[in-house]
Automatic annotation (TrEMBL):
Keyword vocabulary terms for this entry: Dioxygenase, Oxidoreductase, Signal
Keyword Heme: no
Annotated InterPro entries: Intradiol_dOase_C, Intradiol_dOase_core
Pfam families in the cross-refs: Dioxygenase_C
Protein name: Putative GPI anchored dioxygenase
Biological source species: Lophium mytilinum
Superkingdom as given in the UniProt entry: Eukaryota
Signal peptide coordinates: 1-22
Amino acid sequence: MVVFSTFTTAVVAASLLNSALAHPGEQHDADHVKRELEVRDHYANHAARSLANCAGTVKARHLEQRAIARRHATAEKLRAKRGISSRPYFHRRDLTSLEAFETVNHNMTGSVSDPSTIFAANTSCIMTPEVTIGPYYVLGELVRSNLTETEPGIPIHLEFQFIDINTCAPVPSLLIDIWAANSTGSYSGVAATGQGGLNSTYMRGVQPTDSDGVAQFDTIFPGHYDGRATHNHVVAHVNASILSNGSYTGGSVAHIGQLFFDESLRSAVEATYPYSQNEAEVTSNDDDMWAPGQADNSYDPFPEFVYLTDDITDGLLMWISVGIDPTVNRNSNVSYAAYLAADGGHATGTTLGGGGNGTNSTVPSGAVPSGTAAPVKRGLGYNLKKLFAGSAARMH
């Protein structure tokens, strides 16, 4: 069976005073965090108003229909790849029923076989537009869809769809850059103590969006570390160039964000190996300094998901729609701890998360990726063909 759940939209109050962060460079004082949250909320509210005009249009309905079909096909493909026989889907109850139901038993589900029910959802809100990139961004990661390498953990197929808040059209030819900590809370690509090292690349990668604004990744569910809720970083690059060696260069950053995960799902993951070996204290979404101050129709940082079977270790399909303004340049909010070149990783000496007061590093001298670059062209004239039914257009 496939178990479906929509992440709760209950209030997740951000803690501005939590400074017990395990990773160097990720401490922020309360005033700095507050300023960045205010900027984030401004962007979110503006985008939500713009996207509200898209809901219910013929284009939006067509996009949702395509999304339902795509997600259903993806779930079936993932199940077939794992040798899972076709069985009825199971659908978690709607939010109102679920909230009352979960006080009794978190595991019960109601069965349903219609994919349009399982894979559909509203598309009227946006994911939280963060203004901090975190301390461990690595510039120039590889363009690839499978980020797992040899990392153990719960496999996830993660799908993003990006929608232009100005036109309600999907945004093709973005380069979507994601990274996260592994099951035991360690980041690849950086030299800081306890991390994977400059020449490691696990759980990092870049994918272009297709004509429907969709980018897809295979990775594992992230692990946690002290002081932060479980999360996944996302950056969207506009007009970047893909290099022949499998990396990219140039362009500008139009979005910086972070995905968060439902507490009940995270708990289910953490009960499995190797997550259960992680000795770092768990931080809830409520206690995370960057978790949204609330999850409502303005922004929602949680992706939708289905279990591929009733056993979580068989994997998850997750999806989220993201509303962005591709004309905005957020390069001033970007700093990176390292960059990936033809001869491996290079540290920059910068470990601060870029934000309103962030530093904008430049690549040090030395070897850089070589190859003939072809500009990634961005077009905005597409119909809303596949907006993820079931995620709201939200931001990372």
